[in-house]
Design a protein that fits this description.
binds iron/sulfur cluster, four-stranded parallel β-sheet, 13 helices, alpha/beta, Rossmann fold, 6 strands
Length: about 325
């Protein structure tokens, strides 16, 4: 489950993560029996998917403590529904202090021990080295994609399809796909937007933005840029994994102070030529909602208009959502 987790640690334990963000096409009905009505689609639909057998292939379900909704999911699964898969939790600190670092290092050690119990494999030094080498290469490939975006000759939809393939491909497969993207000017015409939020679903959103005469100059998405981690080279694998997770870009689910988010967004928007911010959030996403009023106020003061849209995850985009985005783009033109 989203958003931040230690990929190299899983690999060293010979486990391959497949991320579940919804999925959008699944109905809420079955999952909604287990949560309050104001729970987001990512949690409710994932529960429906699980209950319908969609995750039967998995040995374990890792539920990081990203927000109250995911913590609730971890509790419902672990304490009440008890699926066949082992339910694992990971408590992520909300700060960047030394104590947060120490806590996360111990938390990762605890998770690692649980994985030994689950899989019967105790990673050797060689396993750790191989896992970090592969996952660091994939993290670097993702960072490089963002750095080179203006010189990659694919549409925003195709670009984000590759970015999001990190959610299910192996590190090697991801590096290969990222490296195969054609060089050349990005086909960007019209008004540049920064898109913020958790996940941009469905991918058709990017086609629609293009048809409105705009393009995505950059993102502040949990499924995208917020997972461009800094690399770390400590010998201790838990220290190294903790460093990676605690150097992620500004992110409301990690407790980034609002002023840091405002400053970071302003700087990136200026550098990328984005004229406005589209905050595109799944309905009922509390960590995102807490920040919206102050983000809007400060970015407006800095000359950046902000549109906040909440959506229900599905295979299609409602006309009302498209009309609001189109009107926003018109005001920026
Ligand atoms: S959409 Fe928001 S509330 Fe839902 S799981 Fe993601 S961070 Fe949590």
């Amino acid at each position: 489950m989203p958003i931040h987790y230690p990929r190299a640690l899983l690999r060293a334990h010979r486990l391959h993560p497949i991320e579940v963000w919804g999925p959008p096409h699944v109905e809420r009905h079955e999952g909604s029996r287990h949560f309050q009505v104001y729970t987001c689609d990512i949690v409710v639909k994932a529960m429906s998917f699980l209950r319908s057998g969609g995750l039967d292939v998995a040995r374990a379900i890792l539920v990081p403590h990203t927000c109250d909704a995911l913590q609730g999911m971890g509790s419902v699964l672990g304490d009440f529904l008890r699926p066949d898969q082992r339910v694992l939790t990971l408590y992520l600190p909300r700060g960047r202090r030394t104590s947060d670092h120490d806590f996360l290092r111990r938390e990762l050690g605890r998770l690692s021990q649980t994985l030994v119990d689950l899989n019967g494999h105790h990673p050797s030094d060689r396993d750790w080295a191989e896992a970090f080498e592969a996952e660091d290469a994939a993290d670097a490939a993702l960072a490089d994609l963002y750095r080179r975006r203006a010189k990659i000759a694919v549409s925003d939809r195709d670009f984000y399809a590759i970015v999001r393939s990190r959610e299910y491909l192996t590190a090697e497969q991801f590096c290969e796909q990222a490296g195969a993207l054609p060089e050349g000017d990005a086909p960007h015409l019209g008004v540049g937007l920064m898109i913020s939020g958790i996940v941009a679903e469905p991918l058709e959103l990017f086609d629609q933005i293009e048809a409105m005469g705009a393009y995505v100059a950059g993102d502040d998405l949990a499924c995208g840029f917020r997972r461009v981690y800094s690399l770390s080279a400590e010998n201790d694998p838990f220290e190294r994994s903790a460093n990676r997770l605690l150097t992620s870009p500004a992110d409301p689910t990690c407790g980034t102070p609002i002023q840091v988010r405002v400053d970071t967004l302003q700087t990136r928007m200026r550098a990328m030529g984005a004229r406005g911010l589209l905050i595109y959030d799944p309905k009922f996403c509390e960590p995102e909602l807490f920040d919206v009023p102050l983000l809007r106020k400060h970015l407006n003061e800095a000359g950046f208009p902000v549109l906040h849209v909440e959506f229900e995850m599905g295979d299609t985009l409602p006309h009302q959502t498209l009309s609001r985005i189109e009107a926003f783009v018109e005001t920026l033109s």
